[in-house]
Amino acid sequence: MNGIFFKKSLFLIVFFCFSIFVFGSENYSMGESLFKNNSPEEAIPYFRLALTEPDVNKMVYNYLGLCYYQVGKLQESLDTFLKGTTVSGTNKRQLFYNAGNSAFSLGQFDRAVEFYSYSLAADGTFSNAVLNRANAYFNLVQYQTAIADYKQYLILEPNTDQKEMILRLIALLEEEIVLQEQEKIRLAEEQER
C-alpha cells in the first residue's frame, strides 16, 4: 500500500511541477502575444501573473512596463521598469532607458536624466539614451549640457534623419546662451547705477 501511495504522490509532485512550468510560461507567452498584437490592456494581467511565477522570462518587466506606458499608466510603468532593474539577469540598459522615458512623460526631467545616464553607464554608445537625455536637459533649461549631448548624438548617429533639425536646435541654443549672458551683464550694470 505504501508503494502505491508513494508512486501516486511522486506522480502528482512531478505533474504539479511540470504544470507550473508549462502554465507559467503560458502566462508570459499569452501576454507577449497580446502585446505584439497591440493589445497592451489585455496583456497586463498575463504579465502580472507571470511575475508571480518562478523562472519567468526576464523580459516580463520590459513588456509589462511598456504595456502600462501605452495605456497611460505612467507611474506604474516607471515603477515596473525600476523594479526590473533590481532583478538579476535583466537588460539594465533597456529598463533604465524606458524608465527615463516614463519619467520624461511624467515631467520628471531630472529623474529622466538620471535614468538615461544609468542606461548609458550600461552602454555608452546607446544613441537613443543620449538624444533623450539631451531633450531632458533642454526641458531643465540646462542648455550647455543639452548641446553637449546633442553633439554626442550626432557623433554616434552621423547619418540620422534628424541631423539638420538637431544642428538648427544647437545653433538656437547657442544663441540663447549668448543672449542670456548679455542679459545678465545688462542687469548687473543696471544694478550698479
How are the SSEs ordered, and which strands pair?
Elements: H1 2-36, H2 40-51, H3 60-70, H4 74-85, H5 92-105, H6 109-122, H7 127-139, H8 143-156, H9 163-192
Helix pairs in contact: 1-2, 2-3, 3-4, 3-5, 4-5, 5-6, 5-7, 6-7, 7-8, 8-9
Task: Quickly describe the structure.
With 193 residues, this protein is an all-alpha fold. The protein is 80% helix and 0% strand.
Determine Rg (CA atoms, Å): 25 Å
Total beta strands: 0
The string of secondary-structure elements, in order, is HHHHHHHHH
Q: Mean pLDDT, as a whole number? A: 89
- What fraction of the residues are assigned to beta strands by DSSP? under 5%
Return the structural class. Answer: mainly alpha
Model regions low in confidence, pLDDT < 50 over at least 5 residues? 10-24
Helix content class: over 70%
State the end-to-end distance: 106 Å
Shape, principal axes of CA atoms: elongated
Biggest sheet layout: none
Number of helices: 9
